[in-house]
């Protein structure tokens, strides 16, 4: 076995293209593992931990360079794979030059060819966002910023500018929106209806909108704000704008607000605005003060599932609390799974692609299990010293900036999480591996199939050591999504994976399983 690398200086390629290219290289004869990746510090750490490290990377690869790293059966196979990668890149350039369709290279030319547009979506490296966003706002368009790694200073400046122009800036790091029935970024395929959502939580918006669809109702608008919008530094600018828009929208009859608990002054502003509404408002500040919400005249929801249930009932003219929101674990299933563990197996390894779903899990684990570590900020929960190494009960959001700099979001490319599934199975103390599979536009075409490859390998690893693992999952999406939720669930259940209809139910089951 040999590891060889090749560095392309000052070379930028789109991350989607690099993901596909890496997959192509792994199929070359004699290749064991391969990555084609930008040379950021985080990506270098990933290559080192994944056994694709060379002295050449250490000494020559910079943040603006492209790294081709190949592990192969022998040196000839490695050389052939690297040359094959370079050939594939050359072919891509040739194909691009031969394309007959016009592809605008700048915002100005795009606007000239689509003069009626009123919203633009940016998905570019964060350091370039301010320049492009200013152009969009100056042209009078609303803006959705999918990009992460945008400075707080730039976010505040852009949102204040938009507010003055009566425009909306969704983001930065806004992963989901549904505007006038059009799903944007990671949104799911849901029916149109009379429930409007404003969310500082991408997968929170996905979970609630999908559950509302699965409960038989639909969405009028789904407005994302970006996670930092609810911080005091930003002041909830977009959340307040979104709430105002939904309250004025004739097609919206029920409003849902979703976020982690905002900073106190933002909470007061949002609840004050919601309290003036003639429409019912359901508020889910995950892990927040339910009584404070109730005192503001809104309907508090402790989980994303409860928020969806209450919104559906209110939209049908029913009392919000008529929803069966009680979350109870199946005691017989808990006993059955518990009996499969050896005494050494006592820890949860939750490997999430959705940050809001991971945060909700932390909320529901609170008081049920001890010694939890995470890469998210949650109350007194300890931060992981090394995100590549689990400690005790571990909850990881693979969508955090530390994992996505120079890499695709895990909903698009689950390979990093899949590798971690296999790695966690080697730990004799691992009992439960928990996953969220998020469907929708731009997500992986078959997340269940991709995860199952890793799950099968993980099971084999554990079984060789005389252990069995429990795999607990939730599938966020609808049967209308291109991946088809029903088909995804069937694949998982056929392989003995435990699938729950909501993230909250999966979390409650897991907490019960590990607390006994």
Which key phrases capture this entry?
Gyrase A, domain 2, five-stranded parallel beta sheet, Rossmann fold, alpha/beta, 4 domains, globular, seven-stranded parallel beta sheet
- Tell me the CATH superfamily of the largest domain: Succinyl-CoA synthetase domains
Query: In one word, what is the shape?
Result: globular
Portion in strands: 15-25%
Number of domains: 4
Helix share of residues? 40-55%
Briefly say what this structure is.
This protein is an alpha/beta fold and 516 residues long. It is 41% helix and 20% strand. It has helices at 15-26, 41-49, 55-60, 75-98, 107-113, 129-138, 152-164, 202-214, 237-248, 264-275, 290-295, 304-315, 331-338, 355-365, 401-404, 415-425, 447-464, 485-494, 503-515; strands at residues 2-8, 31-38, 66-72, 119-122, 142-145, 169-170, 176-179, 182-185, 192-199, 219-224, 254-259, 281-285, 299-300, 347-352, 372-374, 382-383, 393-397, 430-438, 470-476, 498-500.
Task: Provide a descriptive summary of the structure in words.
The protein has 516 residues and is of the alpha/beta class. The protein folds into 4 domains: 2-98, Gyrase A, domain 2 (2-Layer Sandwich); 111-169, Rossmann fold; 173-326, Succinyl-CoA synthetase domains (Rossmann fold, 3-Layer(aba) Sandwich); 331-515, Succinyl-CoA synthetase domains (Rossmann fold), CATH 3.40.50. The chain is built from 19 helices and 20 strands. It has a 7-stranded parallel β-sheet, sandwiched between helices. A 5-stranded parallel β-sheet has the order 10-9-11-12-13, with helices on both faces. It starts with a strand and ends with a helix. The relative contact order is 0.09. The mean pLDDT is 92.
């Amino acid at each position: 076995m040999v590891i060889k690398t090749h560095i392309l200086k000052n070379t930028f390629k789109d991350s989607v293209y690099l993901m596909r290219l890496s997959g192509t290289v792994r199929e070359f004869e004699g290749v064991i593992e391969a990555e084609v990746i930008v040379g950021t510090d985080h990506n270098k750490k990933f290559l080192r931990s994944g056994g694709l490290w060379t002295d050449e990377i250490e000494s020559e690869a910079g943040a603006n360079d492209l790294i081709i790293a190949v592990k192969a059966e022998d040196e000839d196979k490695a050389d052939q794979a690297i040359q094959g990668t370079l050939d594939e890149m050359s072919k891509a350039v040739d194909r691009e030059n031969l394309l007959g369709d016009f592809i605008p290279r700048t915002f100005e030319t795009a606007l000239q060819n689509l003069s009626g547009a009123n919203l633009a979506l940016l998905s570019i490296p964060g350091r370039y966002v301010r320049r492009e966003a200013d152009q969009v706002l100056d042209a009078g368009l609303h803006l959705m910023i999918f990009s992460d790694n945008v400075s707080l200073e730039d976010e505040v400046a852009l949102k204040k500018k938009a507010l003055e122009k009566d425009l909306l800036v969704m983001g930065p790091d806004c992963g989901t929106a549904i505007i006038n029935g059009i799903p944007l970024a990671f949104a799911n395929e849901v029916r149109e209806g009379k429930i409007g959502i404003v969310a500082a939580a991408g997968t929170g918006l996905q979970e609630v909108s999908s559950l509302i669809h699965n409960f038989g109702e639909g969405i009028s608008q789904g407005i994302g704000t970006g996670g930092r919008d609810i911080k005091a530094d930003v002041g909830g600018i977009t959340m307040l704008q979104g709430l105002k828009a939904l309250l004025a929208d004739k097609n919206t009859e029920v409003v849902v607000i979703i976020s982690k608990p905002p900073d106190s002054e933002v909470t007061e502003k949002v609840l004050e605005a919601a309290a003036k509404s003639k429409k019912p408002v359901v508020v889910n500040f995950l892990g927040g003060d339910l009584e404070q919400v109730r005192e503001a005249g809104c309907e508090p929801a402790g989980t994303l599932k409860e928020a969806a249930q209450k919104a559906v009932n209110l939209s049908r003219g029913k009392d919000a609390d008529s929803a069966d929101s009680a979350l109870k674990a199946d005691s017989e299933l808990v006993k059955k799974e518990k009996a499969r563990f050896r005494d050494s197996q006592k820890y949860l390894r939750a490997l999430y692609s959705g940050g809001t779903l991971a945060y909700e899990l932390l909320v529901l684990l609170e008081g049920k299990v001890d010694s939890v570590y995470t890469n998210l900020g949650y109350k007194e929960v300890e931060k992981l010293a090394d995100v590549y190494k689990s400690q005790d009960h571990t909850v990881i959001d693979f969508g955090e900036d530390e994992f996505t700099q120079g890499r695709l979001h895990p909903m698009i490319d689950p390979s990093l999480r899949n590798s971690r599934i296999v790695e966690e199975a080697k730990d004799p103390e691992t009992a439960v591996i928990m996953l969220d599979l998020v469907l929708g536009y731009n997500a992986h075409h078959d997340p269940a199939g991709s995860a199952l490859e890793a799950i099968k390998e993980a099971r084999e690893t554990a079984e060789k050591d005389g252990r069995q693992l429990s795999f607990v999952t939730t599938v966020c999406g609808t049967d209308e999504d291109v991946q088809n939720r029903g088909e995804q669930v069937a694949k998982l259940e056929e392989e003995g994976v435990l699938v729950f209809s909501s993230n909250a139910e999966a979390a409650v089951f897991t907490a019960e399983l590990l607390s006994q």
